[in-house]
Amino acid sequence: MPTWDLPDVRFACVTSLDGAHAFFWAVAPADYEGLLASWARDAELRVAAFEAFTDPRIVIESCARPTKLLQERDRPGTVMVGSVEHGRWVNWNLPAVPRPPVPAYW
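^ that's the sequence the OP posted. Answer follows.
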């Protein structure tokens, strides 16, 4: 099995209160608490740390956009990795990585 030198990226899951809709976000560690706090302001949503993306390809691809935005615009960037509706992927924003099985999020 290869050894991966993985970039540092954090994930969060934002869901509707009923859990029917889930959005998976990636952000640089320095901006992670801000991401959680900004989503937590909306009483119609739940937000939590998300650790289920363990495939190194997902981590690497998720890190690319926030890092690029930070370098180009000197501001934090986030990437929506994908979204789920009623237990099915409806959006997957990492074209270089196959969609994983829908993770358990609540």
